[in-house]
Amino acid sequence: MKALVYTAPNEVTYRDEPSPSPAHGEVLIRVERVGICGSDMHAYHGRDPRRVPPLILGHEIVGDIVEGPGRGRRVTVNPLITCGACDYCREGRDNLCANRTMIGMTRAGGFAEWVTTAASSVIDVPPTMPARAAALTEPAATALHAIGLARRSLVRPLADACVLVLGGGAIGLLAALLLQSEGVRSIALGETNPLRRAAAGGACGATVFDPAEGNGVADASVDLVIDAVGARATRAAALAAVKPGGVVMHVGLADWASEIDMRKLTLAEVTLIGTYTYTTADLVATVAALERGAFGDLAWVEERPLAEGANAFRDLHEGRCAAAKVLLQP
């Protein structure tokens, strides 16, 4: 089969790879679309020691089961393969499974014509759902999960909150779109890339600004900050922007460590929440949300052939791509 393989830092190669065969309890999926995730870019940059080349990346998948249980079903994939037996799985928090593995990290992913995964890790999508919508289930579920956690910690109703989103990539933009669909009227979105900033401004009703030219909001003025970047600068900006008693939702992982303003966190009684991916229930809810149009028309999504994947990675790396999400089609 043809596949796009991460072969070295800043290098992905379109080449022939052996076609996978499903083991017992697995399915073989013919990939219809697969998205390039920020974590794929971290691997491409050589910044993720968990993803070791040569490796087929890619975990934002929609396709058809062609072999194994449920043959003929159109599905998206929970890239986390969980044990179903640990305390986290039993509690419904399978994203924290103590024994999880992941396609595109510990095993071959979806930048290929075919991919295998556990039969328990697939979620049905409607046959009529456009591929570009179905392929956004995984990143959209990350936004949905994060907003759900934030909702529980906010003192005021979410719709009445003043929200700052840092980062106009897929997670940040999807979060802004979902917030908008849930009635949030005051949303500011910070993005440094001018192409993405323009695209985000056209896709959602947020006030879009360039963080390099200022915070876009006054210090201590917002109820909720969603940091979809996770860099030192955005962590500092998030703590500066949140008001006393507010919530900072930390999603991105651009930088692994940094100082934060612990004095403000304590004296202003700020709630800082880390969030990791989504549960299976979140993925099911996200398919339904995408089908009813909760994330808008998705016109900002770009689609390219898998054979042109190396160019897509380079364009993303060099900031030449306006789209917050690029989908590849085998």
Notable features of this structure?
330 residues; 27% strand; 6-stranded parallel beta sheet; 7-stranded mixed beta sheet
Number of helices: 10
Helicity level, as a percent range? 25-40%
In percent, how much strand structure appears in the residues?
25-35%
The tally of beta strands, per DSSP, is 18
- General form: globular
Question: How would you describe this structure to a colleague?
Answer:
With 330 residues, the protein is α/β, with parallel strands linked by helices. It folds into 2 domains: 2-136 and 301-329, Medium-chain alcohol dehydrogenases, catalytic domain (Quinone Oxidoreductase, Chain A, domain 1, Alpha-Beta Complex), CATH 3.90.180.10; 140-274, Rossmann fold. The protein has 10 helices and 18 strands. The strands form 4 sheets. Strands 3, 5, 6, 9, 10, 17 and 18 form a 7-stranded mixed beta sheet that branches. Strands 13-12-11-14-15-16 form a 6-stranded parallel beta sheet, with helices on both faces. β5 (60-67) and β6 (74-77) form a beta hairpin. α4 (137-153) crosses α5. The longest helix has 17 residues, at 137-153. It starts with a strand and ends with a strand.
What's this model, at a glance?
The protein has helices at 38-44, 87-90, 131-134, 137-153, 170-181, 194-203, 232-241, 262-267, 280-291, 309-317, and strands at residues 2-8, 11-16, 26-35, 55-56, 60-67, 74-77, 80-81, 101-102, 114-118, 122-124, 162-166, 186-190, 207-209, 222-227, 242-250, 271-274, 302-305, 326-329.
